[in-house]
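On clarity, I found the account of how folds are encoded harder to follow than it need be. For illustration, here is how one protein appears when written out as sequence plus structure tokens.
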Amino acid sequence: MFGDFLRRLTAPDPDTLPDSDARLALTALLVRVARSDGDYDSEERARIGRIAAARYDLAPDAATALRTEAEALEAEAPDTVRFTRAIKDAVPYEERIGVIEALWSVVLADGVRDPEEDSLLRLVSHMLGIEDRDSALARQRVEARG
């Protein structure tokens, strides 16, 4: 279903993604991090939906549809390293900082900072070209919002 999209995303020199494709890829990354601890619960799904709605100015139904599509893409996407590097090459830096904040929001959605999620988020931050300090500041912003 997503074969052409994934081929374009992981091409040796990918073009900047159109907004709709960037939305899908970044939401799939949220899903990947949420699934990393083996417990993809309703709170994490709801949080991803709220993030998508706020970030992309979507109605709740459209945000749910995007999340559902992203879940399917995440299941077909290559390993996290290639997938994340492809996003880095195709998405502007400013958007990637916002994604790190959104990822921390998902990781912290269940109130537990799970070691698997934490480890994956460190890897993803690095693969997205985000410095540890910027990731820590993003986490602090999310924690401050509660």
The two ends are 37 Å apart (CA to CA). The chain has one domain: 3-7+17-145. The CA atoms of residues 10 and 86 lie 5 Å apart. The chain has a mean pLDDT of 85.
